[in-house]
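Support request, please re-run this one:
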Amino acid sequence: MVGLQKILLVEDNLELRTIYEQYLRRRGYDIISAVDGEEGLELAEKHHPGLIFLDIMMPKIDGLRLLKILRHDESYGCTKSKIVLLTNLGDASRVDPKVQKDMDGYVIKAEIELSDLIDIIKSFEQEPEN
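Re-run finished. Output below.
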């Protein structure tokens, strides 16, 4: 899939954001990061990333609202971006079915290994284009 080199990471936890950024940059990905949903929206509109890692619990605009905006408002240029939610919620089935329809993946932060981020990216790169 074209465009997955540019990744937007929207995560309010400085430590996690730094770890994810450094890990992905060292593997050749262009990482743009935001500290909250409002900044994430601005950066998404400016950069049109192919993949967005999106924390759910954030200040200003929470991840679920941001997901809905990015998925359904064409003016931001991200309706076809892959969007993976990052959360501490332990069960994806607790996420509203409408939200599940809009997201492309769901990662439990406490359970993820850094190498799993690469596996997620590669899984999207292997998908046939529509």
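Strands lie at 6-10, 30-34, 51-55, 82-87, 105-108. The longest helix spans residues 14-26.
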